[in-house]
Amino acid sequence: MDLQLKNRRCLVTGASAGIGLGIVEALAQEGALVVATGRRGDKLGEIADSLALKGCARPAVVTGDITDAGAVKRIAAEAAEAFGPIEILVNCAGGSRPVTPEAGDDAWEESFYLNFMAARRMTAAVLPPMRKAKWGRIINITGLMEPRALTPEHGALSAGVAMKAATHLWAKGLSRDLGRDGITVNNVPPGRIDSEQVERLYSDEFRREESRNIPMGRFGQPRDIGVLVAFIASPLAQYITGTVIPVDGGLSFYGA
To answer: What distance in Å separates the CA atoms of residue 214 and residue 93, rounded to the nearest whole number?
Structure first.
């Protein structure tokens, strides 16, 4: 199936590894022009070179910290300079941020700026050209809404989950306001996906045990997220908006 993404201009945050990398690869392989942003410029450069060697259009690389409001504006401006006004934004940067019930404001505020405000600010920065063109895609990589203990050492309380829940409701309202402008807004909550973050948080023993709770019996791969993002980013998905579509191997009991 041709997803009609050739030369569509995309910006992917949190693109240097894991799910973000899987999304960059999926979009580039469909012929999209991708701007990859993150804090690790060396990793982003390696990804861009690798995709160019595979025959894809070389992604543009823009480094920056999206928790900084000034950096968000600069990243959006440099992304537009690379290929033209952004048509597809994938807000992928984020983190789980497990906390204790006694955690102070610093922990919650850090998660707020990383998991919610960064996506809201980046969306606001790229939205005007989308509205003018009467076409655009906003896709947020969020998280499952069933709080679970991430590791035996941590409880189920997570500042990241709380902020991703806020993102879902923000995105729902945004989808209603932008629908008549031809802009769709959707959320993709990943389940257990093999990534740098997972390797850092989970022991091999815990991963084997956790896999037993997943109906498919295994963790997913970043590409499992990338293929869905590529579809809902495409013109073919023009009537899909305001949704939350989990990619979790059946892990969630009631949906996101």
So the answer is: 24
DSSP letters for 24-69: HHHHHHTT-EEEEEES-HHHHHHHHHHHHHTTSPPPEEEE--TTSH
Per-residue pLDDT of 170-189, as tens digits, reads: 999 999 999 999 999 999 99
Helix (H) or strand (E) holding 209: helix 204-211
Helix (H/G/I), strand (E/B), else coil: 15? coil
Nearest in space to 83 (alpha carbons), one of 118, 48, 57: 57
Q: Is residue 254 part of a domain?
A: no
Backbone φ and ψ of 3, nearest 5°: -80, 0
Would you say 168 and 142 are in contact if contact means Cβ atoms under 8 Å apart? yes
3-state secondary structure of 89: strand
The CATH number given to whatever domain includes residue 60 is: 3.40.50.720
| Two structure tokens written together for 216 | 């498919």
Q: How many domains does the chain have?
A: 1
For residues 27-54, average pLDDT: 97
